[in-house]
Specification:
18 strands; single chain; alpha+beta
């Protein structure tokens, strides 16, 4: 495999292999090249990758810019909807794609002598040194980047097939670690054989938000924002390969020289060459393999441009802006990419993804609190939501990397996929309000369980579990609520603006959330020692407060009623029930304080 267009190097799942199930049928995987994947994009459901972070790299560095550079992008919402509803590229579009791929085919040779794809020909160090191919692989041990449970050490050879090398090459341009890089001959900024101050790859600075459709064709369109025609100097990296001239004038990425500059537009930022790389192939008994590489410094973005489509944004509070723009400091934009938080399910950040009205959310950035606005892509999808089927199964993939030790190592990879109702992208709609209410309830329930645990620990004479150390019961509850929230997200696709149907969905959610919350609370209460029944008095700021089991439980149940109002109203409207039996794990001497009915009955 040497040419990315016509040789097979991607694995794609067919979308029509299960009869009668339409788009939702899971077909077999097929090995394909870029040409077939694009021309038959409606036949494939998705591409398979070794690591979730490879997918946005492949789409951004290759698939999306080819389509936009060959066909242009839709000028407005009406044109975008027409192309999207077509479901496949038209014969005329296929002809244009074929002509484009034929005209640029020589630029997609992975091991081309003069213009290897996404590399610098004859790139070398002053001592002609190379490093192992593990340098490209985020999950492989190399230098300081040693995964905790890796069975491979830096001394082990890692032979990459051409297909693997191509995928990790694209991944490196998007996600590479920061810090010192090897100095390349021809780079005027090299000092003592190295370059310093290299940032992480451009996607490593974002929390990637990537809409996903039922087919590769739909996913491509969902990731192409409609708008004005691109600028004349906004070109993908394979059309910026001039070997001569000053890099500041040519913007070439085919030489060891690099620069720090602003992005010229969508194609430029998608195919940003954050590193200068050369793959070193060799023949082995197993065939052609990449065992050595050269990775040097590449272009640096001045800042994340506002036309970056694959991230949500944080609008800094006035206080934060003041700190950043103090006297003598360089002016900094108040808007910055929002990164995903490890250990938090993707739906816990939906308040940012649903912030479609940029102006309104910017106002929400108060003196002390930051505001949000959603990604460019979700904003565009929100603008056309009424022209698409209400129950369209839009998915949103969230990916990110957490770096450690001055961003020089990969600590963890974030990935989540959540269903998102199209109607939720209407900030004034019923579904958006329902979702935000349910998410707020989930967070409040977790806080209530944590408060119950804290009160019991104070009654026992110990301190509450710190928020940043150990696992608190609220974390356990959020994990238990995760499938319920995802079910609610999928169910609200069919609600539309039907208030009664939305209320029924929220009522069902509250009943199930209440059951899960009580299960976790019972686990907390079952650990109560006998001394907690009499309690303990704590004096703080001249005021006495009594902590005891009965008070903590009563306060927790009252808090649940305040959070889950529909559930509480149903219980109060029902006939007087019998008292809930004691938990068998609770001592018989425990004073029982609640007469709330069991939701399990």
């Amino acid at each position: 495999m040497c040419n990315l267009l016509d040789d097979v190097w991607l694995s794609a799942r067919s979308s029509n292999s299960v009869a009668g199930e339409g788009y939702r049928g899971l077909g077999a995987f097929e090995e394909v090249g870029v040409r077939r994947l694009l021309l038959e994009a409606e036949r494939f459901q998705d591409i398979a990758v070794e690591l979730p972070t490879q997918k946005p790299a492949i789409y951004r560095q290759l698939l999306l810019p080819i389509v936009v550079d060959a066909l242009g992008r839709p000028r407005d919402a009406a044109e975008w909807v027409a192309v999207f509803k077509a479901g496949a590229f038209s014969p005329e579009q296929c002809d244009k794609l074929n002509a484009y791929l034929d005209g640029h085919r020589h630029l997609f040779d992975l091991f081309g002598k003069d213009a290897p794809f996404a590399q610098v020909a004859r790139l070398r160090t002053a001592r002609d040194e190379t490093k192992g191919s593990a340098l490209l692989v985020a999950t492989a041990a190399t230098g300081n980047n040693v995964p905790l449970f890796s069975s491979r050490s830096e001394g082990d050879s890692l032979d990459l097939t051409p297909a693997q090398a191509a995928r990790w090459l694209l991944h490196t341009h998007c996600w590479d670690t920061a810090a010192i890089k090897t100095g390349a001959v021809g780079d005027p900024r090299v000092k003592a054989g190295k370059t310093t101050g290299n940032p992480v790859g451009p996607l490593g600075q974002l929390g990637v938000v990537m809409p996903k459709g039922r087919t590769v064709y739909e996913t491509l369109l969902l990731n192409i924002p409609f708008g004005q025609p691109l600028l004349s100097d906004d070109r993908p990296q394979w059309r910026r390969r001039g070997p001569n001239g000053r890099v500041e004038e040519t913007l070439s990425c085919a030489t060891p020289a690099w620069q720090a500059r602003a992005s010229r537009g969508l194609l430029d930022v998608w195919t940003w060459q954050s590193r200068r790389i050369r793959l070193v192939p060799e023949e082995t008994p197993s065939g052609l393999r990449v065992t050595q590489v050269v990775v040097a410094a590449g272009d640096r973005l001045d800042s994340t441009p506002d036309h970056e489509p694959h991230t949500a944004w944080i609008v800094d509070s006035a206080a934060t802006r003041g700190k950043k723009s103090g006297k003598g400091k360089k002016a900094v934009s108040p808007v910055r990419p929002r990164r995903h938080q490890l250990g938090r399910a993707g739906w816990r950040g939906l308040n940012a993804l649903l912030a479609v009205d940029r102006a309104g959310e910017q106002i929400d950035a108060t003196d002390v609190r930051a505001g949000f606005h959603t990604s460019v892509l979700l904003s565009r999808i929100g603008a056309v939501r009424e022209r698409l089927p209400q129950e369209y199964p839009l998915q949103v993939e969230l990916t990110g990397i957490a770096y450690g030790t001055q961003s020089s190592i990969v600590e963890d990879v974030f990935f989540d996929e959540i269903p998102l109702p199209l109607t939720a992208l209407n900030p004034d709609g019923i579904v958006c309000g329902s979702l935000l209410e349910a998410l707020s309830q989930a967070e409040s329930l977790a806080s209530a369980v944590n408060s119950l645990s804290a009160d019991l620990r104070r009654a026992a004479g110990t301190e509450p579990i710190p928020w940043d150390k150990g696992q608190r019961p609220g974390d356990t509850l959020l994990h238990a609520l995760d499938p319920l929230v995802r079910r609610l997200l999928a169910g609200l696709r069919t609600v539309g603006e039907d208030f009664e149907q939305s209320e029924r969905g929220l009522t069902a959610w509250e009943q199930k959330a209440g059951r899960e919350t009580w299960k976790v609370a019972e686990q907390v209460l079952s650990t109560a020692a006998p001394g907690l029944f009499s309690g303990r008095t704590v004096t703080k700021d001249g005021k006495d407060r009594v902590y005891q089991l009965s008070r903590a439980e009563r306060h927790f149940l009252d808090r649940m009623d305040e959070i889950l109002t529909r559930r509480a109203a149903l219980r109060k409207a029902a006939p007087e029930p019998q008292r809930r039996p004691r938990s068998p794990s609770r001592p018989a001497t425990a004073p029982h304080t609640t007469d709330r009915p069991s939701d399990e009955s």
